[in-house]
Task: structure prediction
Amino acid sequence: MTTIEGPIPEEDRGKDTGQKSSASLTWRRFKRHKLALVSLWIIVGVYLIAIFADVIAPRPAGDYNPDYPLIPPQSVTITDPGDGRGMGFYVHGYTQEIDEVSWNRYYTEDPDELHKVEFFASSGHDYQFLGLFTTDRKLFAPEDADAPFFLLGSDSNGRDIFSRVIYGTQVSMSIGLIGVVLSLVIGIALGAAAGFFRGVVDTVIQRITELFMSLPSIPLWMALAAAIPREWGPLTIYFAITVLLSLIGWTSLAREVRGRVLTLRSEDYVVAARLDGASRFRVIRRHILPGLTSHIIASVTLAVPAMILAETSLSFLGLGLQPPVVSWGVLLQEAQNIRSVITAPWLLIVPSTAVVIATLSLNFLGDGLRDAADPYGGAVK
Result:
């Protein structure tokens, strides 16, 4: 890190001396990557949604209304109904018709039935706000708790898709973080050991890595997921899926770390540290691993969307998380047949849009962080 040594002369105070820390240089490079900067705010927003899901979701994930199955997304209007409630946001009620031939339900908005949407309104459903206190206030909810309120439609059981996608964000985004942390620890430890010690250690680790890389991913995921006992609870299955994905996803990072360590171990400052009597583990921790920052950042940010897609794929196939756990993959299970897609396309569009936005944003963010952390990326003017 480049710093300004000694006191700053009085005549130079408030001026740009041209000397900046590596963190500030990295941030300036990152800000040049406009797409990555936008993606950063999107990801921050997604994780804020996951943290405050109980507040944002109008209804609990499992709350259902059998009178309103497969309702299309509702439109919100700004109007004054003239009944004393004043100007505000309103949603229309529905009238239902059943086709006597196909027995399909058809909904039309009732122009005479309006339900006001209030902010920080009482929803009638208690929850623990961040585990601190009990409340039933939601960011927005209909004035009448029993009114039909399905901003993004409902599923076949009359459950609000918008609320379920919000709650699914908690599981799908957290499984990516937890899985990547485990993969990061395994990949860095094995890759650094293989590159630094070489010899027999390198040979054994490389053969293990090649064994895992030679296995086809999807059949391996399916086999491991199928091995999880069905009698396990939802939370246990959640952590089991996370661990299984982590045990598979460390191989690429280990290879990248090994190659970088093989290069860094012959650098002058590493050789000097070893000649000075520093232990091998101190050399790895203090002198080699800091040089892997850009590779680790890129690998982590690109591995999170891979974990999300893996969980989504397994849950979609019915081999991953199962109800009552709510994740984006579990939500996509209802879109497994063509009839559901034709009659209720929002069952496919809404969860898949959430997956696409999250994975693309993480990929763009990873590209920006990799370029910004690369010490050979060019000087910042």
User: Anything to note?
Assistant: DSSP finds 14 helices and four strands in the chain. The CA atoms of residues 80 and 87 lie 4 Å apart. The chain has two domains: 74-149, 164-373. The two ends are 17 Å apart (CA to CA).
